[in-house]
């Protein structure tokens, strides 16, 4: 049983757990207590003193965020003493804070503005102009993050979130007292350990840290907010999309503080080179004419046609595509048949760890590639001992892991040597084909013998959705072989994943071999330029849908208005299909992956065909590569 204590807050009785802070107790009865330095997911700092309340029995003001309740405690949150305390703190902050709200990007979502309106001085107390409130400047040497020292209220949340949530330790404080400045641990910021998650920007209560691509772009009160789940990878982290129905202006974290560079920097990929109308032979056409090309192909030549489905599509989309393949009899495949499908066929029935098990894990073993590039947010959960069994560990070094250098079969051997049953084994992508199948079997053996929890987190969002929904998947290398032998002469691509895995020369060869190439894609560049027919496709920001993330099925909500609807497009195709013969399938035993497949280690800036189209991510990549070359 939980020990409860009874307290009074502004005369209202409330029972709370013994180890509850006054601030958290006040939230239970919806009492508003202002804060700058507090966040429920960060260690208590107690530096801003904005949350002062009055302890009646102690006859003094105390900080609500760092004071714990006791039985019989009486708290007043709005007596005259408390109001004077808050006013004095705000006076100090406003004395050194420039009155530049009209040009500050934080205007409209600034805690200093809000608390000043409620409790602060309503006029300038000291005869100091905004131009005289000057502090030393600190240049972060970043193309994406800007620090404005004059606006800083010294809450230290940015340093805390970088140390305790992201754990990259990229920023720190220099100097002391009112002269404190926030500075990168290493400059330039963009080429340091910074992972560009943007948490320091999101958590800053004022406009001291700014996101440069958003600067002077839009006022927050003119934008709409969509609370949804990020669909850049299989974690499905909660995020907020700020938009105006036509354009995404930024993607930021929720109070859960779970975001990485892929959405934070990569949001601009949704605004770039979008295919808005169908094309036939690179000439704009009507939707009906373009869809008729798909329908005719599937009705007339299903046994010579393959459908390639993308893990960036929702479950609803996958269901329709599965019905199209089943009804027509065409082959269907996906790039997930290279890694996730053989892995799970080797592993067998899979149940991921619960959210609670992830949060309470005492030991982690990270296997294969550096997950800080493919699924960075999972590293935010790693608060205990970490072992990395990998041929290359880079950003994961932030967790000070025990690094065991291994590759290929050695990874399996080292894993068996280091497992004791108490850890969560985390695997993203490293093995392919028969190697993935064999690794899956070994993981299952380890779990059966040691009772470990296994976390399989693909770098793409809805691989589990494809496996659960799409039937009769053919192994992609066998499909390529059938294209080479001209048994398959036509291809229908949903998304551009094929270009991510086939080497450029091989992709050109395959496309030249095919008689008919149709693509449904969000983008007008890339494969749309070399296909006979290109049909627009919505992304996860433009259409409601469910995704099978590793943390369960989550609904992804529409933010941008679109003149198309994926499901309606697929429904039109489905309704005009003739029922074909039994569906074609090629499913051999998994072999070694042919050499023409590109399975090099992925980096965070080019982990998908979305990321590669982001100017922000590409600029970050170029800056890092340029630094390496200079060194």
TrEMBL record:
<feature type="domain" description="2Fe-2S ferredoxin-type">
    <location>
        <begin position="3"/>
        <end position="81"/>
    </location>
</feature>
<dbReference type="InterPro" id="IPR017900">
    <property type="entry name" value="4Fe4S_Fe_S_CS"/>
</dbReference>
<keyword id="KW-0001">2Fe-2S</keyword>
<dbReference type="GO" id="GO:0016020">
    <property type="term" value="C:membrane"/>
</dbReference>
<dbReference type="Pfam" id="PF10588">
    <property type="entry name" value="NADH-G_4Fe-4S_3"/>
</dbReference>
<dbReference type="GO" id="GO:0016491">
    <property type="term" value="F:oxidoreductase activity"/>
</dbReference>
<dbReference type="GO" id="GO:0051537">
    <property type="term" value="F:2 iron, 2 sulfur cluster binding"/>
</dbReference>
<dbReference type="GO" id="GO:0008137">
    <property type="term" value="F:NADH dehydrogenase (ubiquinone) activity"/>
</dbReference>
<dbReference type="GO" id="GO:0048038">
    <property type="term" value="F:quinone binding"/>
</dbReference>
<keyword id="KW-0677">Repeat</keyword>
<dbReference type="InterPro" id="IPR050123">
    <property type="entry name" value="Prok_molybdopt-oxidoreductase"/>
</dbReference>
<dbReference type="InterPro" id="IPR019574">
    <property type="entry name" value="NADH_UbQ_OxRdtase_Gsu_4Fe4S-bd"/>
</dbReference>
<keyword id="KW-0874">Quinone</keyword>
<dbReference type="InterPro" id="IPR000283">
    <property type="entry name" value="NADH_UbQ_OxRdtase_75kDa_su_CS"/>
</dbReference>
<keyword id="KW-1278">Translocase</keyword>
<keyword id="KW-0472">Membrane</keyword>
<dbReference type="Pfam" id="PF22117">
    <property type="entry name" value="Fer4_Nqo3"/>
</dbReference>
<keyword id="KW-0479">Metal-binding</keyword>
<feature type="domain" description="4Fe-4S His(Cys)3-ligated-type">
    <location>
        <begin position="81"/>
        <end position="120"/>
    </location>
</feature>
<dbReference type="GO" id="GO:0042773">
    <property type="term" value="P:ATP synthesis coupled electron transport"/>
</dbReference>
<dbReference type="Pfam" id="PF04879">
    <property type="entry name" value="Molybdop_Fe4S4"/>
</dbReference>
<feature type="domain" description="4Fe-4S Mo/W bis-MGD-type">
    <location>
        <begin position="223"/>
        <end position="291"/>
    </location>
</feature>
<dbReference type="InterPro" id="IPR001041">
    <property type="entry name" value="2Fe-2S_ferredoxin-type"/>
</dbReference>
<dbReference type="InterPro" id="IPR054351">
    <property type="entry name" value="NADH_UbQ_OxRdtase_ferredoxin"/>
</dbReference>
<dbReference type="InterPro" id="IPR006963">
    <property type="entry name" value="Mopterin_OxRdtase_4Fe-4S_dom"/>
</dbReference>
<dbReference type="InterPro" id="IPR036010">
    <property type="entry name" value="2Fe-2S_ferredoxin-like_sf"/>
</dbReference>
<keyword id="KW-0004">4Fe-4S</keyword>
<dbReference type="InterPro" id="IPR017896">
    <property type="entry name" value="4Fe4S_Fe-S-bd"/>
</dbReference>
<keyword id="KW-0411">Iron-sulfur</keyword>
<protein>
    <submittedName>
        <fullName>NADH dehydrogenase i chain g</fullName>
    </submittedName>
</protein>
<dbReference type="Pfam" id="PF13510">
    <property type="entry name" value="Fer2_4"/>
</dbReference>
<comment type="similarity">
    <text>Belongs to the complex I 75 kDa subunit family.</text>
</comment>
<keyword id="KW-0520">NAD</keyword>
<dbReference type="GO" id="GO:0046872">
    <property type="term" value="F:metal ion binding"/>
</dbReference>
<feature type="domain" description="4Fe-4S ferredoxin-type">
    <location>
        <begin position="184"/>
        <end position="214"/>
    </location>
</feature>
<dbReference type="GO" id="GO:0051539">
    <property type="term" value="F:4 iron, 4 sulfur cluster binding"/>
</dbReference>
<keyword id="KW-0408">Iron</keyword>
């Amino acid at each position: 049983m939980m020990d409860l204590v009874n307290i009074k807050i502004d005369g209202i009785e409330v029972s709370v757990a013994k180890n509850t802070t006054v601030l958290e107790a006040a939230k239970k009865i919806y009492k508003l207590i202002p804060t700058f330095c507090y966040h429920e997911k960060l260690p208590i700092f107690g530096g801003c003193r904005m949350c002062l309340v009055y302890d009646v029995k102690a006859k003094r003001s105390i900080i609500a965020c760092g004071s714990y309740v006791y039985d019989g405690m009486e708290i007043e949150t709005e007596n005259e003493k408390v109001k004077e305390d808050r006013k004095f703190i705000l006076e100090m902050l406003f004395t050194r804070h420039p009155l530049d709200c009209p040009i500050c990007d934080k205007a409209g979502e600034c805690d200093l503005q809000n608390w000043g309106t409620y409790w602060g001085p309503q006029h300038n107390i000291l005869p100091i102009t905004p131009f005289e409130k000057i502090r030393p400047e600190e240049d972060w040497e970043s193309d994406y993050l800007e620090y404005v020292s004059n606006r800083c209220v010294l809450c230290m949340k940015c340093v805390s979130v970088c140390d305790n949530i992201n754990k990259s330790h990229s920023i720190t404080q220099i100097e002391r007292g009112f002269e404190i400045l926030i500075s990168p641990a290493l400059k330039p910021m963009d080429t340091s350990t910074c992972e560009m998650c943007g948490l320091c920007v999101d958590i800053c209560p004022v406009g001291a840290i700014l996101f440069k691509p958003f600067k002077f772009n839009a006022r927050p009160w003119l934008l709409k907010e969509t609370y949804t789940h990020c669909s850049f990878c299989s974690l499905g982290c909660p995020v907020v999309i700020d938009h105006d129905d036509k354009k995404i202006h930024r993607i930021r974290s929720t109070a859960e503080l779970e975001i990485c560079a892929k959405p934070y920097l990569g949001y601009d990929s949704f605004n770039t080179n979008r295919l808005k109308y169908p094309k036939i032979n690179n000439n704009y056409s009507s939707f009906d004419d373009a869809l008729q090309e798909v329908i005719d192909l599937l009705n007339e030549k299903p046994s010579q046609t393959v459908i390639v489905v993308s893990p960036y599509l929702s479950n609803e989309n996958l269901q329709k595509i599965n019905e199209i393949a089943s009804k027509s009899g065409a082959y269907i495949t996906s790039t997930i048949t290279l890694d996730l499908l053989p892995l799970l066929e080797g592993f067998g029935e899979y149940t991921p760890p619960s959210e609670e098990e992830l949060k309470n894990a005492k030991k982690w073993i990270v296997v294969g590639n550096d997950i800080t590039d493919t699924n960075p947010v999972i590293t935010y959960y790693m608060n205990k001992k970490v072992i990395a069994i990998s041929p290359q560990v880079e950003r994961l070094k932030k967790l000070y892991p025990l690094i065991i250098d291994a590759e290929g079969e050695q990874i399996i051997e080292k894993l068996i040597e280091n497992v004791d049953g108490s850890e969560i084994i985390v695997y993203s992508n490293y093995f392919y084909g028969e190697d993935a199948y064999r690794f899956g079997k070994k993981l299952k053996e380890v779990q059966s013998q040691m009772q470990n929890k296994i976390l399989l987190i693909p770098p793409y969002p809805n691989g589990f959705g494809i496996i659960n929904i799409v039937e009769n998947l053919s192994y992609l290398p066998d499909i390529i072989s059938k294209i080479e032998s001209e048994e398959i002469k036509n291809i229908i691509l949903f998304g551009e994943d094929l270009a991510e895995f086939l080497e450029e020369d091989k992709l050109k060869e395959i496309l030249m071999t095919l008689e008919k190439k149709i693509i449904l894609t969000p983008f007008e560049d890339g494969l749309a330029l070399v296909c006979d027919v290109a049909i627009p496709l919505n992304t996860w920001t433009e259409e409601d849908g469910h995704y099978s993330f590793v943390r369960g099925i989550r609904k992804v909500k529409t933010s941008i208005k679109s003149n198309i609807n994926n499901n309606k497009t697929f429904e039109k195709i489905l309704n005009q299909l003739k029922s074909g013969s039994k569906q074609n399938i090629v499913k051999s035993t998994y072999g070694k992956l042919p050499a023409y497949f590109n399975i090099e280690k992925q980096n965070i800036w080019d982990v998908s065909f979305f990321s590669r189209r982001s100017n922000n991510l590409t600029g970050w990549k170029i800056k890092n590569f340029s630094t390496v070359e200079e060194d």
